[in-house]
Amino acid sequence: MAELATIARPYAEALFRVALQSDGLQAWSGVVAEMAQVGALPEVKALADNPKLGDREVADTFLSVLKSPLTAEAKNFVYMLADNGRLTLLPEIGAQFQALKNAQEGAADAEIISAFGLSDAQVKDLIASLEKKFGRKLNPSVTVDVSLIGGVRVVVGDEVLDSSVRAKLQQMHAALAA
Questions:
Q1: Which residues pair with 142 in a beta bridge?
Q2: What global pTM score does this model have?
Q3: Tens place of pLDDT for every residue, the chain, 178 residues?
Q4: Cα(99)–Cα(108) distance, integer angstroms
Q5: DSSP the chain
């Protein structure tokens, strides 16, 4: 995995510089996120690895799947990745681009896993308290995992706050087993 990160880093940094120069960091962020999401699909990997298709055909097919309007720079980026056999790096490029964007903005991604669905107001309140705790703006993504039984688990970078019932039961089990 470290090798993919090493290969993807120069692409992500170059794309980030282009986004900064064009003053369109938010727009580029959406396009890169969509490219990363589509690039992670197994069908795209199969498309990129198909020896019967040329690089241009692979890039054109990939571009036709994207819904966001693309600039000439974005299209050229996809063509360049396809020409170099690197189209499957898009998920890693997207992750590194997002990390660079967060560093630029003094923000972080927060993965919130809840045992039950959260309303927008609950997410807003939770993010407000988490932003105070972490001292930076957080970009939340919320998922539901019923195996938590109750409560939430929050992952921000390499920090984990686990207030789920499952975690508390595991702690009790470890204490009783010791």
A1: 112
A2: 0.79
A3: 568 999 999 999 999 999 999 878 999 999 999 999 999 999 999 999 999 999 999 999 999 999 989 999 999 999 999 999 999 999 999 999 999 999 999 999 999 999 999 999 999 999 999 999 989 999 999 999 999 999 899 999 889 999 899 899 999 999 999 7
A4: 8
A5: -HHHHHHHHHHHHHHHHHHHHTT-HHHHHHHHHHHHHHHTSHHHHHHHH-TTS-HHHHHHHHHHH--S---HHHHHHHHHHHHTT-GGGHHHHHHHHHHHHHHHHTEEEEEEEESS---HHHHHHHHHHHHHHHTSEEEEEEEE-GGG-SSEEEEETTEEEE--HHHHHHHHHHHHH-
* Tokens read off for 117: 């669905």
